């Protein structure tokens, strides 16, 4: 006998995750594939098919009641394209009905809080801040992609590190361990700017986010250039969050406790110098203790559960179990490549 389920999918620039969840909150199947950002990923449709297929195969005999996809690059300008890609993958697997397709911002918030409204700050492959209510983004700041924005994201940090390394090579900037660390990460000889340039241009922009952990390692070790990049990233992220938040008190005055949750998502905010500075800034400026998002696919599944009429307590229990599992595994690894989406 089949089990009624919802499906949640979180698709970013680096990876696509899928969760099949029973209506009582049990996770029956999971799947993962490559990135499905509508602007920067090579084959979003194949990523959706692979992640869905893997999760459904693990779940077994199920009947899909509702599905929610959070897709990087599926904001207003990219929504029609994202819907077409998702529906093509969905129907190709013989699944019934039409899934709900949104960008991944509301999904990230729902991966950290079962509350209907609040703030979310994402810094993974891309970066964006938003105010969310009832599964919809009311206001957002940045998330403009690596070329025009995504300030404080893993790609932004990687690019800032490369600029510092090149400046150290040609004498425009101070010496930094990034000169050698990033060359080794790219697989090129240290001190050769042309080799660095070729290596960077041979890679899709999203892959440059994989250099961010090297910059963060250097910052923790006391490298001045890397530490400056981390400080600048945190400052920009907090500025973006403030732009979407309700009015806060002037600088120097203690903030009142926030009435709504503040969710932090993305590998950059999972741990390390940027995450520490952002958490301190949220407490200081917004009077809130930020909470960390769990797997975005579970956030999408939580939204699907609520849209299917399942009580919010099931969504809350789903997040609690996920957070406990992360704690038991010693927490997320901030040195891994930026993964959750949050911007085109």
UniProtKB/TrEMBL annotation:
One GO term in the molecular function aspect is: kinase activity
Ligase as a keyword of this entry, yes or no, is no
User: Which keywords fit this entry according to its UniProt record?
Assistant: Kinase, Transferase
Recorded superkingdom: Bacteria
- Residue ranges for the region (Disordered) are 325-344
Record carries keyword Transit peptide: no
- A Pfam family (short name) is BcrAD_BadFG
Q: Where is the ATPase BadF/BadG/BcrA/BcrD type domain?
A: 7-304
Q: What is this protein called?
A: N-acetylglucosamine kinase
Task: Please report the organism this UniProt entry assigns to the protein.
Answer: Marinitenerispora sediminis
